[in-house]
Structure formats: C-alpha cells, structure tokens
Amino acid sequence: MKLLLVEDNRELSTWLTRLLQASGYAVEQAFSAEDAELLLVTQTYDAILLDLTLPKANGQVVLKHLRRKNNQVPILIISALDSLVDVIENLNLGADDYLAKPFDIAELEARLRSLLRRSNGKTNPIITCGRLHYNSNSKVFSANNKPLNLTPREHAVLEILIHRSGKTVDKKQLADSLCTLDDSISPKALEIYILRLRKKIEHSQAQIITLRGLGYMLSQVPSHHA
C-alpha cells in the first residue's frame, strides 16, 4: 500500500515514514501543499496523511483540489488544529478521518487500516478468499489456518490482491503500489513474486489469475476444482 505523507515538520515526517515503512507501507513525503500537488499529478496513492498547517498554502488547498477533481483517495487529516469547528469543516470538505496531534502511532495505524478497508469496500478486519485469510489488524496471512511465511514484497503483493479480490489489478498499478519514486520493481521481479505466491497458496482454494494484457486477480477456486 502506497501512502503520501504531507507534513512540513521534517523530523516528524522522517519518524512517521520510518514507522510506516516498518509496517509494510511504501511512503512518499511532501513538505508543502505545492510538493503534494506536484506528486499527485503523476503518482497515485492508496491514502494520504495530510497536515493542515503547511507553509504558504495550507493542507485544505490539497483537500479541496482533490475533491473538486473527483479524486476520492482516502484522506486522513493529522493536525494540531483540533477544535470541533476545524474537524467538522474538514470532514465536510471531504476528509475521511481526522486525528489530532499529538497522537499515538498505534492509533494512527488503526485509523489508516480502517480507512483502507472502507475504501476497498471491506468492513471486517478479517478478509477471506477461499481458505486464505488476512487479518488486516495483525497483518498476518494464513492458509488452511496456518500462518503463511512471506517475504515483505510477497506480503505487499498479496495484501493488495486480497484487498481487491475479485477485481483485476493492473500490473503497473500493482508495481506502483509497492514502490516510491526512489524505489522501483521490474516486471520480471513482479512475475517472480506472483509465481512464489501461487505456490504458497495453492491448497488454500484461492488462486492468482493472470489476465493477459490486463493484470492479475485473486479469486476463489470454483468448488468443483477445489
């Protein structure tokens, strides 16, 4: 899952980035509304963490521009402006959630997981495809009630696929969701991750289908093939 963190306090931004990366997120940083808007021209994100008190233009500018363009990327406001008026105003402008500074990183991650589940049409923290289960709170995958041993990249690929199970995920979209501008993943590497995952989930009644020219889809194996 790829996040954009818009926060002008560089020390706080670096700290948050490290913690979120340790939890498996790909994180890109913007230190101003202008930086954020430049990134949003070429990049897509699964969610945005948005501070309001930014230099020059405030975070509301980013929020308003995105919603005017009908861009429905989930936005979690993280701000010291925590009056009821501020919270209501920004939620009415289209923010999805609001977290007042200072905050606990565990609460931030919990809000973020909930936001990502809702944006993918999921409400239960346990996401299931066949006998493949993903606990989005603990971030643990299991197949046939046994934990799966996955590398960080395999985990990231399977997490995106199970969040969007039954839907086609474009190869470029999948690769972009795993990487930041300072990182990259080759098409060959992505194919290797998919091959490894197919082997690891082969008896779970879940399968990764290649849709030639379109991408990949995680789906349940039809019962007569199980």
UniProtKB/TrEMBL annotation:
Coiled coil: none
Keyword Ubl conjugation found: no
Location of the Response regulatory domain: 2-116
GO molecular function, one term: phosphorelay response regulator activity
SMART domains associated with the record: REC (SM00448), Trans_reg_C (SM00862)
Keywords: DNA-binding, Phosphoprotein, Transcription, Transcription regulation
GO CC entries: cytosol; protein-DNA complex
DNA-binding region: 124-220
InterPro entries per UniProt: CheY-like_superfamily (IPR011006), OmpR/PhoB-type_DNA-bd (IPR001867), Sig_transdc_resp-reg_receiver (IPR001789), WalR-like (IPR039420), WH-like_DNA-bd_sf (IPR036388)
Domain OmpR/PhoB-type: 124-220
SUPFAM superfamilies: CheY-like (SSF52172)
Keyword Transcription: yes
Transmembrane segment boundaries: none
Pfam families (UniProt xref): Response_reg, Trans_reg_C
Residue list for modification 4-aspartylphosphate: 51
PANTHER family: REGULATOR OF RPOS, TRANSCRIPTIONAL REGULATORY PROTEIN TCTD
This protein's name: Response regulator
